[in-house]
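User: For my dataset I need records formatted as: sequence, then structure tokens, nothing else. Please produce one.
Assistant:
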Amino acid sequence: MSAAPVLVLAFGNPGRGDDALGPMLADRLEDWLAAQGRDDVEVIVDFQLNIEHALDLADRERVLFVDARASGENGARLDAVSARADASYSTHAVSPQGLLAVHEQVIGETPPQAELLSLRGHSFELGDPLSLAARQALEAGWSGLLGWLDAATCSRTTATV
């Protein structure tokens, strides 16, 4: 079985307040994809990025990383991500840029086009509930995710015609 061409890789700790934003958005996406009967998008959820996730990028056309962020403006933000070797590959939490670089080095292929959807969180303590600002970021992130997904799958259709 071949990999779905589009991957959404969400990460965060559901037990640490607003750090749950990535997994929560992924859960919502999985339900939506199932209701739509779509199998062209794979969703992976984990506590954090690890170098092993470099293998999950193989044979993908587009990848969206989804994570909570602790600074910047409220809401959701979409940024392009490119491979950049950094020291994060040797830590327990690899950056999206570092993961793309590991993929390029280990797999030997150009990494897929990638973006990071980051959602602003405010409270990351163990056992904290989701903050009001994070709930608003989640809704903004959902709109951003659907827009990204539409563009990612539309460009695939155009490219294969």
